[in-house]
């Protein structure tokens, strides 16, 4: 059991009048205090829905958590009232959203948005909260912080708004920071500054970070461990160096091969053929089998379990599991029938 966050068999679906579409299909992982853990995968793999489920921020959508536990300090967040969750959000667990321009309120000045959360969670007076907000903006590398307190989000650049989002998330010194694609759409210089800032937060304040991204280059730069998701499940997990040096799952290998490398001359980048299946049209068996160069007969019939090895190493692939035993079980059941 991890000492900070434990997600166990989390299942989340989107429900409409005529169908129930499961997007997160039994995700389990843990995060220890002071770690930076990356969740990677293509768009549509369930990464963001997993993070929103942890924060219980799906109430304004058709999304519903169907099963599982989200243990924070061994307390199941899914059992708490909305009032208790509001006390945890922002103070104990904070989130940086993917697009600051849609996450920041466009009609409120930056200062007001920061001060509201600080007054709510830290119980400071308005003047104390303002001074604290300015210091927080300065701590994330924002120049002329006092002036920016009086500006609106549209008056700032994308990179500056992202820093404001980080300042807002860090203002109440949360134990766990969930960062959902925090460097998307930023140029490489600003991206490097944001990553450096997040490492600094971990090193100086022992902040635990769950970093959600599709960019493996970012993962190699900042994460201690990596969780690879595909089609709503975890397909591989391990220490960053082990995952990059010795990937096991064919999907992980495909993601790593598709990364451009400095100094390597190629006419075209490698790409994984096909695309992530729609949650409403999942193939039978292993969900990656239709795109996998190593797919066997059993891969199209039965989904493998997530096999655990020492030191957080996990993988979900028939290449490393006794599929002959499973085949013999199937044959036996057919004979019995």
Output the keywords.
disordered C terminus, four-stranded antiparallel sheet, 337 residues, eight-stranded mixed sheet, single chain, globular
Report on this model:
The protein is of the alpha/beta class and 337 residues long. It has two domains: 5-92 and 174-276, 3-Layer(aba) Sandwich (Rossmann fold), CATH 3.40.50.300; 104-172. The protein has helices at residues 47-55, 82-88, 100-103, 110-122, 126-139, 145-148, 158-170, 188-205, 216-222, 240-245, 250-257, 323-336, and strands at residues 5-15, 20-31, 36-40, 63-72, 75-76, 93-96, 176-180, 208-213, 225-230, 233-239, 307-308, 314-315. It has an eight-stranded mixed sheet, with helices on both faces. The longest helix is centred in the middle third of the chain and has 18 residues, at 188-205. It is globular. Mean pLDDT is 88; it is low at 330-337.
